[in-house]
Specification:
The complex is a heterodimer of chains A (263) and B (323). With 263 residues, chain A is an alpha/beta fold. Chain A contains six helices and 13 strands. Chain A has a nine-stranded mixed beta sheet, sandwiched between helices. A two-stranded antiparallel ribbon of chain A has the order 2-3. In chain A, α3 crosses α4. The relative contact order of chain A is 0.17. Chain B is of the alpha/beta class and 323 residues long. Chain B folds into two domains: 171 residues, HUPs (Rossmann fold, 3-Layer(aba) Sandwich), CATH 3.40.50.620; 124 residues, Rossmann fold (3-Layer(aba) Sandwich). The chains are: A alpha/beta (263), B alpha/beta (323). The structure holds flavin-adenine dinucleotide (FAD) and adenosine monophosphate.
């Protein structure tokens, strides 16, 4: 059973995000980078699948700049077996659809029975890459999984829906995305962090996965960020005065009625 | 030459989602600007009668695929039907609402068509022929203006942001034949949640954090019940096992934009704000006058939620009785 995890490195959710001079991207300097939180769940689940069967391997696949190797190493320290980074100097800006094309092409060069991805990356919040990868590969996709079980060639999952959950089943190979509740990701122990340094981590360019870099220029983008801005500042918070809970509540409800018009 | 606007609506459990009306209304607004026809698509079982309702939101034509095998959502089946509809009718713009299901559907359709897509849009504008979307990124820390390239242009709208507006249209309902594709993901069992109202569609969200001190959310439930709202929670409250994961609001939970968000016993971490910062009006109730939540809220009350929430509930009830 071979599992590939799609892993994205994103800015730490606590970081201060700054807009670049052209206002079409963020300043990459001075940021702390982490593994996308949903991808931690994906790495953990993949490792558990391998541990249960004591066979096969977990490959972590990321498309991104050189610095993304740090996130891959973290996954290796958690227990993944190998890492592959797709990085090509010829590539400029990307978008989710382009990313999915690159990842799908890379997956075609890797053996897998299951692909595990996060439901969304907390930087672009695009919720798109996994569905598009599944579409490009022509494999079934099960979104927002909170529980899974594999039995001879089929995977059964419980998934979050808008109004509850559903239990569904598909034949492998398939792709699933993670939802919180699936597992509690482990921390990498110090000895495992040391061991991870010796695990294979390979960087490949587009040609190595059968893609022509010339077709990935700016013209290939399907969505283009025209500008970035900070959201409008909220008005200063009105603190509701009063001696008792009743007094404060009466003032609040009145304000919600008369000023805010929301009740 | 692509022409017209197509909106995909979601029909589940014998009703349209509220967001279906929002997405049709936004489609109407754009169709008026482009002077182009608006079609709405409904996929489901026994939906023919209900489908006519979309005419009241301005659809010129309602396209209906009605068959028992469309009762439950199936990503493969729905994608292939939409792909056929889009390739035969060639709309220039396709709109969806950002439910769990339609985010997947829209993405698969975009991949199949090699089209551009903007997810979780909070605003749409036309610049000449081009659809420009506004969407938040980096956990609501930034707002991006995004050009959607290619054809059709696909935009997926965040629920509860675009207004639904009734306008009469002399539209017709057309039954569309389709080839049923194989479903590769087999549905074994559905487990509906206790509450029918989804957090992302609720006008009012009353949320509790670690300040709740335990799994008893009854004071919040009473207020939410009175206002027809839904209950949300912070990750801390979810991690404690006080609330289900589906209730989590934030960067690794749901993103909501209700008219009123009441944060009770919530400190206001950036990861929580990422999920509710775009709410219309934010009320914060916290014992700590220095809690960061007061920097983002519109109204703040210092005090214990266990005193204040019941008092607020009572005050609203009292006012309603007077009326
Ligand atoms: C990668 C990552 C992702 C995350 N994603 C999310 C997410 O999606 N959503 C999320 O919410 N968090 C998320 N977090 C966690 C976040 O950083 C905070 O830890 C969390 O939001 C804090 O929850 P809280 O406000 O309930 O708890 P606390 O920060 O402990 O705050 C509790 C508050 O309750 C107040 N209080 C106590 N008693 C009372 C009382 N009786 N009446 C009124 N007030 C009272 C206290 O003064 C305090 O301000 C994430 C963190 C990380 C690292
Ligand atoms: N550049 C990337 N490299 C590897 N995986 C990615 C990349 N971008 C997105 N993903 C995967 O797709 C998921 C959803 O990302 P997104 O569609 O960008 O919100 C992530 O959680 C990852 O599992």
């Amino acid at each position: 059973m071979n599992v590939v995890v799609l892993l994205k490195q994103v800015p730490d959710t606590e970081s201060l995000i700054e807009i670049n001079a052209a206002a079409d991207g963020i300043k990459a300097e001075n940021l702390k980078w982490i593994m996308n939180p949903y991808d931690e769940l994906a790495v953990e689940e993949a490792i558990r699948i391998r541990e249960k069967r004591a066979s096969g391997k977990v490959t972590v696949l990321s498309f991104g700049p050189e610095r993304a190797t740090t996130a891959i190493r973290t996954a290796l320290a958690m227990g993944a077996d190998e890492g592959v980074l797709i990085n090509d100097p010829a590539l400029g800006k990307t978008d989710p659809m382009l990313t999915a094309k690159v990842l799908a092409a890379a997956l075609k060069t890797l053996p897998f029975d299951l692909v595990v991805a996060g439901q969304r990356a907390v930087d672009d919040d695009s919720y798109s890459v996994p569905s598009a990868v599944a579409e490009y590969l022509g494999i079934p996709m099960i979104g927002m999984v909170v529980r899974q079980e594999i039995n001879a060639g089929t995977i059964r999952c419980e998934q979050s829906l808008q109004d509850g959950t559903a239990v569904v089943e598909a034949d492998l190979p398939a792709l699933l995305t993670t939802q919180r509740g699936l597992n509690q990701p482990r921390y990498a122990s110090l000895p495992n962090i040391m061991k991870a340094k010796k695990k294979p981590l390979e960087t490949r360019n587009l040609a190595a996965i059968g893609l022509d870099a010339a077709q990935f220029g700016p013209g290939a983008l399907k969505t283009r960020i025209l500008s970035l801005a900070f959201p409008p500042q909220r008005k200063v918070c009105k603190m509701i005065p009063g001696e008792t809970a009743e007094e404060k509540s009466a003032r609040l409800v009145q304000a919600l009625h008369e000023e805010a018009g929301v009740l | 030459m692509p022409n017209g606007i197509l909106v995909v609506t979601e029909y589940a459990d014998e009703r349209f989602r509220r967001s279906a009306y929002e997405v049709v209304s936004e489609g109407r607004r754009l169709a008026n600007q482009l002077n182009t026809p608006l079609s709405a698509v409904v996929l489901g079982s026994d939906v023919l009668a209900a489908a006519a309702e979309l005419k009241h939101y301005g659809a010129d034509r309602v396209l209906v695929c009605d068959a028992p095998e469309l009762r439950d959502f199936d990503s493969d089946r729905f994608t292939s039907i939409l792909f056929d509809i889009v390739t035969t009718r060639q709309p220039r713009i396709v709109l969806f609402s950002a439910s769990i299901r339609d985010k997947q559907l829209a993405t698969r359709l975009a991949a199949k068509l090699d089209a551009g897509l903007a997810m979780e849009c909070t605003g749409l504008a036309l610049e000449g022929e081009k659809l420009i979307a506004t969407r938040s990124m980096y956990g609501s820390k930034l707002i991006a203006r995004v050009a959607i390239e290619g054809s059709p242009q696909i935009a997926v709208l965040r629920p509860n942001v675009f207004p639904a507006a009734t306008v009469e249209s002399a539209g017709d309902v057309e039954r569309v034949e389709f080839k049923p594709a194989d479903a590769r993901v087999r549905l074994i069992e559905k487990k509906p949640s206790a509450s029918k109202l989804d957090l992302t569609e609720a006008d009012v969200v009353v949320s509790g954090g670690r300040g709740m001190g335990g799994p008893d959310f009854s004071v919040l439930e009473r207020l939410a019940g009175l206002l027809g709202g839904a209950i949300g929670a912070t990750r801390s409250a979810v991690d404690e096992g006080w609330r289900p994961h589906a209730d989590q609001v934030g960067q690794t939970g749901k993103v909501v934009s209700p008219k009123l968000y009441v944060a009770c016993g919530i400190s206001g971490a950036v990861q929580h704000m990422a999920g509710m910062g775009l709410s219309g009006c934010i009320v914060a109730i916290n014992t700590d006058p220095d809690a960061p939540i007061f920097r983002y809220a519109d109204y703040g009350i210092i005090g214990s939620l266990f005193d204040l929430v019941p008092a607020i509930t009572q005050e609203i009830e009292r006012r309603r009785e007077v009326k």
